[in-house]
Amino acid sequence: MAASFYFFMFMHLIICCFQLITATPNNFSFMQPLCHAEESSALLQFKQAFSFNKSASSDPLAYWKLRSWKFKVGGGSDCCSWDGVECDQSTGHVVDLDLSSSFLFGSIKSSSSLFSLVHLRRLNLADNHFNYSQIPSEISHLLLLTTLNLSLSVFSGPIPVEISRLSKLISLDLSLNSGPLRLEKPGLQSLLQNLTSLEEIHLGQVNLTSKLILPNISSLKTISLSDCGLYGTFPTSIFHLPKLRVLNLRYNYLLTGPLPEFQHTSSLQKLILASTNFSGELPNTIGNLSFLDTLDLSDCKFSGSIPASLNRTQLTVLNLESNNFSGQILSLASLSRLRDLKLSYNEFDVGSLFWLWNLTSLTTLYLNGIDLQGSVLSCPANKIQHATIGLSTNTTLLNFNRLQFDSCNLGEFPYFLSFQNQLEELSLINNRIHGKIPAWMLNISKDTLGILRLQGNYLTGFEQQPIILPWAKLSLLDLSYNKLQGRLPIPPTSILAYYASDNAIIGKLSPLICTLSSLYILNLSNNNLTGLIPPCLSNFSDSLSVLDLGGNNFYGPIPQAYNKGNSLELIGFSQNRLSGKLPKSLANCTVLKILDISDNLIEDAFPFWLGTLTQLEALNLHSNKFYGAIRSPRTKFEFSKLHIIVLSHNGFSGDLPTKYIRSWNAMKSIGKQETNQAIPSKEFQLLPGIWWEHDFFYSMTITNKGVDRQYIKTLDIFIGIDLSSNKFEGGIPKSLGDLKALQLLNLSNNELSGGIPSFLGDLSNLEALDLAQNKLSGEIPQQLTQLTFLAFFNVSHNNLVGHVPKGHQFNTFQNNSYEGNSGLCGEPLSRHCGELDAPSPTLSPQPVDSEGSKDSTFPSGADWIVIFMGFGSGTTIGFAIGQMLTSKYHEWFLETFARKKNNQRRERKRKL
Q1: Residue 24 has what pLDDT?
Q2: CA atoms of 681 and 695, how far apart (whole Å)
Q3: DSSP-assigned beta bridge partners for residue 311
Q4: If DSSP codes are grouped into helix, strand and coil, which group holds residue 287?
Q5: CB atoms within 10 A of CB 91
Q6: Which of 755, 730, 764 is nearest to 745 (CA)?
Q7: How far is CA 99 from the centre of its chain?
Q8: What is the set of domains in the chain, with CATH numbers?
């Protein structure tokens, strides 16, 4: 009987399960319904508006979500099962569309079918490429949206004010659009005033360019307005929003204010004011922020001591770099959760630092610019006993991930490094570390080290020289500005950026250098390397962007075979003994921006075929054996982006290249280069969370009888022409007057004749004008006194007559600017104009030496120098006009560039 009962119950259960499985959606509301046909159609139309492009998304885990979006013939299409689509389980309407990192490329138009999905509550299109299109105002049709994320997707133009109609929004993210996006009047308050439920607002890199005025939205938890152009005094009332947890105002350089007194009731967890103009002392009430885990006040103007109350917070990240803090830092000793500690470039009294070993969670420590001599961190490797350093016997040495001790007055490698096996980054720039790199350094963190920066010390080599350096994941190695001798150390194949410039490295380049196929930057300039440049260096890596071998002893031909589609942006072969002709395969370097082959033995006609390089901005052929007339360009667009051209100390002849001058469009508009960012920085990822940029800078040194003046600017806004010390003849062409952005013009040491044209006075940006050692005649035009930026002027050794102009900059020029013109009179010359009763005699041409330059006791145009550099981790790429670098330049460079401000500027584009 019992058996029959259980059998009956079992069969009943099976029947119920079968009915459940075969039940229709109408009978069971919890079953997933099919989506609506019109919404499937709208999504398929949206898909058709875009192309698939792998470069459109930056996430390494990205994939093409739209691959699954297909119409089923005869059976409709259930869009609720597609990737990135979520439907309401009761209505079947599409309510969530997440297409972030989906390789979408194209524009969103106002007629897009997207805006017919009126039941959407969440829309995420982040990390795609919408091709600089504007955000359509029709976004306001999606009135039910609670989440809108359009970040990192290359939108541009004005943010539509219609977004203010999305009154249900809880989260709005329009950040990191490189278009860029901008918010026009009436401003942020008007955009947000109806969004009374808003909890998160992310507008990083949106151009606000205004004072910060926010409506009083009590629900706000996150305010992220980094790099928005905000200015004026920050309204402290924002700190008192009751639910505020994250406040990020990074990179608003003109935003000012002190920190307020904080209340116990504050929920603030992250306070990021880096690179703003906030100032004052930290209030003692900062300890009331009991939930605070991130405090970033780097690159501000804070001062005073660190309040002891800071120990009451929950800090895991503390960045106080580049301020004016002083006093003891022992007050940080109780922050047991601290993971990242950055105190660089302040005036702290660091003491012994023994307490650091008690911060057992600490993995990142940056103490750049703090004198560590005598501290526990500076003990040498042979003093490893705990008693020696005052630690208890049960102390465990910390295992760091990232360490920066730049400019810390260290004389040796700190002993505790020998125990590190998890380092990802180690930076010891600009210390006093002498001698050889110890053998134990080659054994630390072999499997993890990605960044090693030792530049600016006194290192002479390795105690044990390996064939290939042992760090398997090394991506950046900087050994520049040391005294390394012997053969070039070869990094592993993982290397992306290798700097070994300004050492005493000898010998030929090892063929192993061409196995580094992932290289972006290779800078071996200013060493004693010799032999032929390995032919493979022209085509061994499609990723190579910077190749600088200048200032060595290489000889023979320039490598010939440059691949089509290569990534070379800078080629520096200056100051070697290279000979032969320029390889025409350089025309395959279609993204080349700088070509410097100055001070070699290249014998060739003018390389007109380089005019096909549409990105070329700096060309330096100084001091070679180029010859002949410069023939006319084939099109009017050749060299149209050229900012700098240096043809000095060669054998060019004939008239000045008038038709080429007409095509130099980038030299015609003042300010245009800065707006267009003509030479953007190169950026690549070294480690997770660490990106690297190298930018191009120049220093201009004008030398007048031993007195130097130096100017620092970025290459993309510098304009200069040097055609000096050739055999050019004829007059100064009128087309030069169109180059309104010109800052440097050197036509000295040629055979130019005729008068100095008055239109040169219209070149209002001109800072240096050198016309010395020619056959120019007539008077100096009074119009030149309009050049209010002119810092250097030389017309010596010509046939000029009449009064020396007076006014503005001309009141500062000395006698040697005019000597060798017996027909000139007036101050600063000793000859008064009344003494000239007879016409001035015609001066005979100056003698020409074997190199084509004319003798003169006055240090004319060859004495002013323009140096161009790609600066990243101490990189120096020389690009010289006129004389070579003096030895004192290295010291000036380190003083000017190797400080904190460059590092902070390089981090501007980092995502939080």
Answers
A1: 42
A2: 5
A3: none
A4: helix
A5: 12
A6: 764
A7: 29
A8: 594-897 (3.80.10.10)
